[in-house]
């Protein structure tokens, strides 16, 4: 059994420590590899003091004195001591000895990994992939990046984490492995032999660069009357997205932040995409949506008529006909919005359109020229694509 196999099970218990805090933390500590920190001690002086501080902190932790252990670990960690950064990350993740700070925990796990402690990448993956954590938004791209880094450092250790991967992380790993040309299967989150072979190939090729973080976290998002789907993954009905944790899992690589009471915001790489109001339901139990920004736009509901939206919300529209055999079954109107990454899809039955208006639309006349037919079109889908102007997102939810 590898070190991470012993570690990974207590890793899950290191969240939400309550009455069993001391025991759970002891289990986490017991998973630490036994290797010495010779490189840290070799410089003498300050490094030896850091090791002494670290030992004092561990003794304090074992006795349950987290308030004493945390400042000792902070002092040792400030010198670059790998194990001190690693263990401080757990105290920060669980709010032991002081306030909980997930972002700080991530930073300390990252420092420990940069100092050569491969095992620190395991809690780093989990810190970015915890979809049950309401205090900070998960980030599947960062979790996947850490996982692939671990695969190149220790492939067996990376493989031992598979049982803990969330569905969004599974999809992101597939995207990343596809980006480097090792995976050709669907982005479905199902880790089969193709995904495993690609991960194995990545881990064995040290010359492959880690995926670029400044790129789309998803390719397409579709919202309809029936539910939500990202990257053509199976549709998730809205009654399975009623909590922020469940919605984040369904959305995969899309960032969902809490803007206020019953107000979520979808974004990626710092670009706001769509507002979601989970408790503002219609008679069928489908939530309302809205384009973000100021001034506030019209609430979007499936089934609303095209002419209910002001021209300030919409850009250019295009028309096309859906055919069933040789006859036209539906007329589709696809419209850009003031948010370039969001398109609204309206549909109408041919029988609802005046013959002259229908002829004009099929011939490609602009939407404005077909005014008599506006009311016949109803909103059926909201389609979102990853923005082209990309930058690394700040994933902290707004409280």
Indicate the percent of residues in helices: 25-40%
- Total E-strand runs: 10
Integer average pLDDT: 78
Note the gap between the termini: 42 Å
* Radius of gyration based on Cα positions: 26 Å
Strand residue content: 15-25%
Low-confidence runs? 1-47, 363-372, 388-399
Computed structural class: alpha+beta
List the helices and strands and how they pair.
Layout: H1 3-13, H2 21-30, H3 38-41, H4 46-62, H5 66-77, H6 82-94, H7 102-114, H8 121-128, H9 140-153, H10 155-159, H11 167-179, H12 193-204, E1 220-224, E2 228-230, H13 244-251, E3 255-260, E4 263-268, E5 271-281, E6 287-290, E7 314-324, E8 327-337, E9 342-348, H14 355-362, E10 378-385
Antiparallel strand pairs: 1-2, 1-10, 3-4, 4-5, 5-6, 7-8, 8-9, 9-10
Helix pairs in contact: 1-2, 4-5, 5-6, 6-7, 7-8, 8-9, 9-11, 9-12
Verbal overview:
- Helix content is 37%, strand content 18%.
- It has 14 helices and ten strands.
- The strands form two sheets. Strands 2-1-10-9-8-7 form a six-stranded antiparallel β-sheet, with no helix packed on it. A four-stranded antiparallel β-sheet has the order 3-4-5-6, covered by helices on one side.
- Helix 6 runs antiparallel to helix 7 (102-114), helix 8 packs antiparallel against helix 9 and helix 9 crosses helix 12.
- The relative contact order is 0.08.
